[in-house]
Amino acid sequence: MVNYATSEGFTFNMIMLKSFSLCAKCINIEVWEDPSCSEKLNRLRDNKKNLTKFKFVDDYEIKQQESMINDLSAMISKLENLNKKV
Fold first, then answer.
1. Cis peptide leading into 35, omega within 30 of 0?
2. Nearest-CA neighbor of 66 among 56, 79, 76?
3. 48-66 confidence digits (pLDDT tens)
């Protein structure tokens, strides 16, 4: 279980905030532009991988984590599809 008063809790919160920000930037991307999109895609993948490492007991926290992982997955798919069109 993540204790928010520890460095682990701080790390989780920072990854969540960075993920929100990154998804907001990616949502309006319509055309693949290297290297910007490549960098964003790698960061999305890293954030998703890092979020899956946290183990929660509380249902609210689990839903929050799953929701962000789903959002990151959607943005990853979007950018991968844009890259295929190039």
1. yes
2. 56
3. 999 999 888 888 888 989 9
Residue 48 contacts residue 72 (beta carbons within 8 Å)? yes
Q: Could you please report the per-residue DSSP string of 40-74?
A: HHHHHHHHHHHHTT----SHHHHHHHHHHHHHHHH
What does pTM read for this prediction? Answer: 0.89
CA 52 to chain centre: 10
pLDDT digit string (tens) for 19-53? 999 999 999 999 999 899 999 999 999 999 999 99
Structure tokens at 41: 């895609």
